[in-house]
Amino acid sequence: YPSGNLAIIITRERDQHSLIVQEDELKTVKIRALFQSDGRSTCYYRNGDEWINMSIHGGQYLDQAGNRVRRWMWLNLSPEPHVPLSPIFISLNRHVGVRILAQDKIFISFLAMGRQAKFNMGTKVQVSAASQPPPAAQLGEDELLLLAFRVRILQLFDRMRGCLNFPSTEQWNKMQPPMYLMTQAVKILELCMAADISDELRSSIKAIVN
């Protein structure tokens, strides 16, 4: 960002890659979106609530109250009747926008100081009716809380190491947590959205990892 804060991170692990969009904040690292090459992607409102969620099957668009505004299926999944995607454009902030046109046309654009970078995180993932992936195992409330506190403790330990290595307060505010902790935090938030837990607990876990 023009402020010097990190905006977009791209990681690669084996044959998979991910793109993470962070909010333009100095003291906290708030994830606004995660796009993965296996077809899974999630965008979040500024307060951390889920905005758009996509999988290899399709996606859904939620309002800030958590109500489903739109749901769609990708065209290549089956010949059966389905709800197609109408193009979606959202602005995560004044510098980062997301355009969703098709399964293989999901564009993230970054615009600042008259220059633009554009990334296509869309992918063609074919899914046949005979090879539907099994549903993800849901974790209980205690397990989710333990995972969240584990990530939070690791974040604090990492920050303590950074404070010892860089005594200047100005340096502290610029430190970013390790990529593996950011990825774990995003995965816990995804598990929370899939789990049958109360909204209060879901909000508490989001506050812990963020």
From TrEMBL:
It holds the Pfam family FAM194. It comes from the Eukaryota. Residues 1-174 form the FAM194 C-terminal domain. Signal peptide: none annotated. PANTHER family: GLUTAMATE RICH 6, SIMILAR TO CHROMOSOME 3 OPEN READING FRAME 20. This is ERIP6 protein. It comes from Rhadina sibilatrix. The lineage of its organism: Eukaryota, Metazoa, Chordata, Craniata, Vertebrata.
